[in-house]
From TrEMBL:
GO cellular component, one term: cytoplasm
UniProt keyword annotation of Amino-acid biosynthesis present: yes
E.C. number: 2.3.1.30
Enzyme class: transferase
Xref: Gene3D superfamilies: Hexapeptide repeat proteins, serine acetyltransferase, domain 1
Organism of provenance: Cnuibacter physcomitrellae
A Pfam family that the UniProt record links to this protein: Hexapep
Family of this protein: Belongs to the transferase hexapeptide repeat family.
Protein name per its UniProtKB record: Serine acetyltransferase
Reactions catalysed: L-serine + acetyl-CoA = O-acetyl-L-serine + CoA
Keywords recorded for this protein, A-Z: Acyltransferase, Amino-acid biosynthesis, Cysteine biosynthesis, Cytoplasm, Repeat, Transferase
Pathways per UniProt: Amino-acid biosynthesis; L-cysteine biosynthesis; L-cysteine from L-serine: step 1/2
């Protein structure tokens, strides 16, 4: 996909997630979370290029200064990430974010280790993380999950979880191992059609 196509996709995602967005032009001009993602993409390319890690870090810090959103250029981010309001969001170096993820202000995807290892969270696709939520360490949050505002997540969560509290716990409806696609016991009804 072209750079312009990706940018259009990001603007459409912002308009889809935010009912306050009145036009694409407004999103392009006034959404700091979107600007942070766009600068991250440049910084990430530099991060992967030989000899450009320092310029990548400097660019990411400049974006932090302008937007209030800190995304380490080493993080791996999928398509259509939307950061609503943006201020105070921190995404660490080894974080991995799937497609169609939405983060509200104050979200931290932080580490618990000072060693050079996978130390930041992995978010599946279509995850929503509420304002001021903190996800710490190399935990995995399954796709289609929601993390409540102010939650502190320190353990893995399966797909379709609803995580609330400190420490966060899953308050979604109980799943049967036979109806949960994430379970090894899952029985796909399509096999019998």
């Amino acid at each position: 996909m072209s750079v312009l196509g990706r940018m259009r996709e990001d603007v459409a995602a912002a308009r889809r997630h935010d009912p306050a967005a009145r036009s694409g032009l407004e999103v392009v001009l006034a959404y700091p979370g979107l600007h942070a993602v766009w600068v991250y993409r440049i910084a990430h390319r530099w991060w992967l290029a030989p000899g450009l890690r320092l310029p990548a870090r400097l660019l990411s810090q400049f974006a932090r200064f302008l937007t209030g959103v800190e995304i380490h250029p080493g993080a791996r981010i999928g398509r259509r990430l939307f950061i609503d309001h943006g201020m105070g969001v921190v995404i660490g170096e080894t974080a991995v974010i799937g497609d169609d993820v939405m983060l509200y202000h104050g979200v931290t995807l932080g580490g618990k280790s000072s060693r050079r290892e996978k130390r930041h969270p992995t978010l599946g696709s279509r995850v929503t993380v509420g304002a001021n939520a903190t996800i710490l360490g190399p935990v995995t949050i399954g796709s289609d999950s929601s993390v409540g505002a102010g939650a502190v997540v320190v353990k893995d969560a399966p797909p379709r979880s609803v995580l609330v509290g400190i420490p966060a716990r899953d308050v979604s409806a109980p799943r049967s191992p036979f109806t949960d696609p994430a379970s090894p016991s899952y029985i796909d009804p399509a096999m019998y059609i």
